[in-house]
Amino acid sequence: MPSATMNAQVRAVWTSEEGSMAKQTAETRWAKIIQGTIDDIGETAAADDVDGQKRAESIAIQIALKAIKKRIEQNKPLTPLPDDGKLDIQDWNKQLAAIGECSWINCPWLFGECYMYRSIQRILNSSKHWQNYDVFKRQKDSTFVKSRAAVEELASRYMQIVADTRLAQNESKEDAKKLLFIEMTEIALWGNATDLSLLANLTLEDLQKLQGREAIKKSQRNIVDNDIDDVWAYLQRTAGQASRQIDIVLDNAGFEFFTDVLYAAYLLEAGISTSVRLHTKEFPWFVSDVIPSDVESLFEHLDSSECFPGREYLDQVIPRLRKFFQSGAITTTSDPFWTTPFSFHEMPSEAPALFKELQHSYLVIFKGDLNYRKLTRDGMWPHITTYEKALGPLGKESDVKILALRTNKSDVCVGVPTQSKVDALNEEAPGGAWIRNGKYAVVSFNEGR
Q1: Residue of 349, 16, 38, 406 whose CA lies nearest to 227
Q2: Confidence at 3, pLDDT banded by 50, 70, 90
Q3: Cα 30 to chain center, whole Å?
Q4: Does residue 433 sit in helix, strand or coil?
Q5: Which residues partner with 178 through β-bridges?
Q6: DSSP string spanning 354-366?
Q7: Contact, 168 vs 212, CB < 8 A?
Q8: Distance separating alpha carbons of residues 402 and 446, to the nearest angstrom
Q9: Under a CB-based contact definition with an 8 Å cutoff, are residues 290 and 250 in contact?
Q10: Cβ-contact 407, 193 below 8 angstroms
Q11: Are 337 and 279 in contact (CB under 8 A)?
Q12: What's residue 153's pLDDT?
């Protein structure tokens, strides 16, 4: 296999690798994703209020998407992307040339998957009426509404945590402050799996008792690399800094984004952060990643009693969240680097301005599996490899304080403390299930010193 885009210390997982999630995804999921976009375009174009020119253009878009699907199903070579007027096309084609000859079922997984989403967007960019269309919005909205019970439960829990946080601050209960931080961090973590059953859900009174700590410990059992104590120690040691901007590089829209916004609000309410900046993707990416339009869409859904009829706590939470956005305490930004094929190891050279911004950040939180894959170069590292080493240029002496909150849904996982722990996990969840099924997770922190 060509290695031009790989770190000399680690090989990237390829879609041809037997037994890998990469191979399974390329063979079974990619064509279905493309078919979903075809169906979505067709459904939108069929609406009565759609302009005739837009409807006619949808036919050409569907034909182009069907061609991609066919190439995937027939394992055709990856070919240079035609120009769509965007500056990044040249970078994509340079990287493809560096990889060398490859096909859909025989390419670096990370590049191939990114290439697929950029191919979809290239077709939309080349149109007149569909350039700003989100082919995944219908799916994102449907999934979010299905999370009704979790959203309403979490709104209730958040208001309790706000009250507990204030009480803990007023009474200087340091242990309680830490345990509340752990719980809110775990909410943001498991929001990636939409599985609130993995949370402890404790009252402040519980948190001060032994059983509270035991419940927290139980909820952390499936976190295979857990640096939460190190994160808290860093935050406590640096709490006197005047500017404490936290950056959150987002993952999925809908329920997970709701948990991320709650987490941002908590960090402000607790005085941990002075401002929070949320990083979205510039265009529809990996089906459900947050794009700028998903921010207002979140509030539109939360405001809807049809989507979320349990209003008692939502009507308390929503104004608090809106106030943070309106005041500028929470802001959003998009950088084109997030939708490139590059791993984050290339950030210092490919996006030096972004890298410098993150160096000045108080803490950079990367959410979800794709961000974790890019942080670790999607490499087949031994699982006991340190997180710092796997971060490469973003690790030791990078001056970027990085926290990854990720439920395990791919082939890469580092930071497991010992080989005996790896062996135990392999016995508990055979066939690599613990790095793929979303029921295990990492809370990985590196201070970049």
Answers
A1: 406
A2: very low
A3: 19
A4: helix
A5: none
A6: HHHHHHTSSEEEE
A7: no
A8: 5
A9: yes
A10: yes
A11: no
A12: 87
Q: Cα dihedral angle (310, 202, 278, 132), rounded to 10 degrees? A: -30
* pTM for the whole structure: 0.94
Residues in the chain: 449
Structure token digits, residue 385: 């490899």
Count CA atoms closer than 13 A to 280's CA, side-chain side.
18
Cα angle, residue 228 at apex, residues 225 and 231 outer, rounded to 5°: 120
Q: How far is CA 334 from the centre of its chain?
A: 14
User: Angle formed by the axes of helices 30-45 and 137-145, to 10°?
Assistant: 100
The angle subtended at Cα 245 by Cα 397 and Cα 314, nearest 5°, is 135
Nearest to 262 by CA among 303, 333, 320: 320
**Triad 215, 318, 268: Cα angle to 5°:** 60
Dist CA 447 CA 401 (whole Å): 4
Q: What is the mean pLDDT of residues 337-360?
A: 97
CA–CA distance, 162 with 156 (Å, rounded to integer): 10
Q: Amino acid identity, residue 174? A: E
377: left (phi over 0), alpha (psi -120 to 50) or beta: left
| CA triple 266-335-94, angle to 5 deg | 140
Beta-sheet pairing, 441-446 with 402-407:
antiparallel
Give the number of other Cβ atoms within 10 Å of residue 351's Cβ: 19
Give me 93's structure tokens. 């084609």
Tokens representing 222 are 């499936």
> What is the SS3 string spanning 253-284?
CCHHHHHHHHHHHHHHHCCCCCEEEEEECCCC
- Look at residues 69, 70, 46 and name the one whose alpha carbon lies nearest to residue 58: 46
Integer Cα distance of 382 and 10 in angstroms: 9
The pLDDT value recorded for residue 413 is: 98
Model confidence at 216, pLDDT cuts 50, 70, 90, reads low
Contacts of 85 (CB under 8 A, 6+ apart): 125, 126
Alpha-carbon distance 227 to 245, whole Å?
Answer: 20
Rounded to whole angstroms, the Cα distance separating 289 from 370 reads 10
Distance, CA of 279 to CA of 330 (rounded, Å): 11
